[in-house]
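Async update (no meeting this week)

Hi team, since we skipped the sync, here's where things stand on the single-chain job. The sequence we agreed to prioritize is pasted below, unchanged from the tracker. I ran it this morning and attached the output directly underneath so nobody has to dig for it. Comments welcome in thread, and please keep replies under the output.
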Amino acid sequence: MLKKGSKLYSILTGSCPRCQEESMYLEKNPYHLSKLYQMHEKCGHCELHYNLEPSFFYGAMYVSYGLTVAIGIATFIVAKVVIGLELFESFIAIIAALILLTPITARLSRNIYINMFVHFNPESKKKHNG
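Output:
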């Protein structure tokens, strides 16, 4: 079970890394491809600006590379070793897995990248008037 306050919670839910009270994305479903990268400008709770600096999320490309390599290796092991597919069929399975998981990989890489720089701080919640 994921608990608020952990990096893993913020990464897997796509929530604000500082307060973890709301999603960073306009559309929670990563397979709504036209809105895959559309994010709120800032958190409505703690007012964290998600784009910490111009072109901040370009660094997420490196995280994405690591994720796709891990997915490719895992898919190959399952296809070749566990299922027993031939080499060519295993490569087809890798390509299919990478294509199907691209939206999830894109979101996860952004989530991981911003969580490398922003830490959970429950005290940062905006004070409500009234």
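Quick observations from my side:
The two ends are 34 Å apart (CA to CA).
The chain has a mean pLDDT of 92.
Reply here if anything looks off.
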